[in-house]
Amino acid sequence: MLDEALDKISCGMSIIIREGSAAKNFDVLHPLIRLFPHQVMFCSDDKHPDDLITGHINLLVKRALMLGYDIFDVLRIACINPVKHYNLPVGCLQEGALADFIIINNIEEWEVTPHL
Predict the structure, then answer these.
(1) Per-residue confidence (pLDDT) for residue 14, from 0 to 100
(2) Closest C-alpha to 18, from 51, 57, 37, 44
(3) Mean pLDDT of 35-42
(4) N or C: at which end does the chain have fewer Cβ atoms within 10 angstroms?
């Protein structure tokens, strides 16, 4: 799986690191975080609704940081790369853009604070 991802990256493709309820490839593909932070995205698209209560992308961020990856690379992968890849109108903090952000409890746990 890692070799296939490296082949795709060499052709200019982006790679999705998935951790849903069924599809899981974080353990195999996480070395790409350090090697190609501009071509990797996190995804949790097949999570069961009950699993979403415990978290989704924030859990991938936490796992990556626990493995010692650079926080700015990890946040690029979690936030910026998907927005740019899918050409979404939100998600990048820049002048004139709509605000789209979450608040976490702390940088070690990455638990998302509910909006009230």
Answers:
(1) 96
(2) 44
(3) 97
(4) C
In this predicted model, what pLDDT tens digit does every residue of 86-101 receive, in sequence order? 998 877 777 777 766 7
Query: Coil, strand or helix: which one is 82?
Result: helix
Contact 68, 38 (CB under 8 A): no
Structural domain harbouring 50: 2-85
Per-residue pLDDT at 92: 75
Query: How many whole angstroms separate alpha carbon 39 and alpha carbon 10?
Result: 10
Q: Rg (Cα) of the chain, in Å, rounded?
A: 14
Q: For residue 36, tell me if it sits in a domain.
A: yes
Q: How many domains does the chain have?
A: 1
Pairwise CA distance, residues 81 & 56, whole Å: 17
Q: How many CB atoms lie within 10 A of CB 89?
A: 9
